[in-house]
Specification:
Elements: H1 8-14, E1 30-32, H2 41-54, H3 69-74, H4 82-85, E2 90-98, E3 105-114, E4 121-133, E5 139-142, H5 144-148, E6 153-157, E7 160-164, H6 172-188, E8 197-201, H7 205-212, E9 214-217, E10 229-232, E11 237-240, H8 250-258, H9 269-280, H10 287-300, H11 306-310, H12 320-350, H13 360-368, H14 374-389
Parallel strand pairs: 1-2, 7-8, 8-11
Antiparallel strand pairs: 2-3, 3-4, 4-5, 4-9, 6-7, 10-11
Helix pairs in contact: 6-8, 8-9, 9-12, 10-12, 10-14, 12-13, 12-14
């Protein structure tokens, strides 16, 4: 997924699309919207449950009595919205409304950035959770995904179960390609292939967000924000919001191929997205095409050096070209390391700990014995890869 840098909060939030949010994130301040009437006993109890859940350290991943026990047993990432919304923004419970089914409610919470004077509100996400009573009578929360896809059609292709809305034109050839790719990607890094994948097909990024429980989430303006994908490697879940890629979203499949052995929460954006781009391309472009784009980017931006790019400091505004260059640079790193050291080098790189992208530089210098400036190395290796990958 792409992320922007128009304002610092925007960059931090969108980085959650590709890397896990910090489990120690401070709980959001919770307020109530105008329509939330806590004089109603059920509404008041649900508000208390939601507020208590939001205060849990590691909400979305850590065990809690406030969430469905069954979903917590089924998925490590039981709250698929957690890493999108728990980024330090204030939370306003905007609505608690009955679904009309068995005493169940929908809880919508707005996460937003507000200036200190309250004059400027920037919405980040509108989260949708479901609330129902457990066997003891206590209220518990659950994810939107099983509720919103309950009536979808399923199709099994080898070890992948595809979930699609009625009327979806299923592409068997792409599905077979996806299964082959996942086998190949896992084998290339010598890790076990995930035994089963649940793969959801959506018509757009907006639809993708909605089924995981985000009725609204920040999107990049223009065509670049209309399509994308998201994976939850710990649970073998892929959601494709790009009909053109559809059943074979190779970039997200690459994330899932190694996600259990090398959890994405331990890696930074550069390595996380770099590996997936090297293996599966990005936005329907192959690694070779991404490298050609990186050559063009370097020529057009002679003052942007390696450290500025990976540090998110390419310029005053971060656009899709900068994101593509970042992903391509990460892919280039894996390509060079693989050329020198093979699988051993790839695993060593995937094992690098450190959330800031710049944590990669000293590791690269040591592994590859780089004595020149990183910018010279970056531009030289890009040209070499470009020539080698030309058809």
């Amino acid at each position: 997924m792409q992320f922007g840098r128009a304002v610092p909060a925007f960059a931090v939030l969108l980085s959650a699309l590709v890397t896990r949010g910090a489990p120690g994130q401070s709980p959001p301040a919770v307020t109530l919207g105008f329509g939330v009437d806590t004089t109603q006993a059920d509404v008041a109890a649900i508000v208390r449950t939601v507020s208590a859940y939001f205060r849990i350290r590691g909400a979305g991943h850590a065990y809690t009595p406030y969430w469905s026990a069954r979903e917590q047993e089924e998925r490590h990432d039981y709250d698929l919205t957690a890493d999108f919304v728990f980024q330090g923004f204030g939370a306003t419970i905007a609505a608690v409304t009955p679904t009309g089914s068995g005493g169940e409610y929908v809880v919508r919470t707005l996460f937003a950035h507000a200036d200190s004077n309250g004059a400027s509100i920037r919405p980040v996400a509108l989260q949708r959770l479901y609330a129902g009573r457990n066997p003891t009578g206590a209220w518990e929360l659950s994810s939107a995904l099983p509720h919103l896809t309950a009536g979808w059609v399923t199709r099994d292709v080898k070890f992948i179960t595809y979930h699609m809305p009625a009327g979806w034109r299923f592409d068997e050839e792409k599905a077979q390609r996806a299964a082959r790719f996942l086998d190949s990607a896992a084998h290339s890094v010598q890790v076990p292939r995930p035994p089963h994948i649940d793969y959801y097909l959506a018509a757009s990024t907006e639809d993708m967000y909605r089924i995981i429980g985000l009725d609204y989430f920040i999107q990049v303006s223009g065509p670049a924000g209309a399509r994308g994908g998201k994976s939850f490697p710990n649970d073998g879940i892929i959601i494709s919001g790009d009909p053109e890629l559809g059943e074979a979203y190779l970039h997200e499949l690459a994330h899932v191929a190694i996600g259990v052995e090398f959890p994405e929460g331990t890696r930074n954006t550069l390595l996380n997205e770099g590996f997936a781009t090297w293996m599966g391309g990005s936005r329907n472009r192959s690694y070779a095409q991404m490298i050609q784009g990186l050559v063009a980017y370097q020529n057009a931006n002679p003052k942007v050096d390696f450290l500025h790019l990976i540090g998110g400091e390419a310029g005053p505004g971060w656009g899709s070209d900068d994101t593509d260059a970042l992903y391509a640079t990460g892919a280039l790193i894996f390509d060079v390391v693989n050329t020198h050291f093979g699988v051993w080098g790839i695993k060593k790189l995937l094992g690098v700990r450190g959330r800031p992208n710049r944590a990669v530089e000293p590791e690269l210098r040591e592994m590859l014995q780089i004595f020149q400036s990183m910018d010279d190395w970056w531009r030289t290796e890009t040209i070499r890869a470009s020539k080698r990958l030309q058809p």
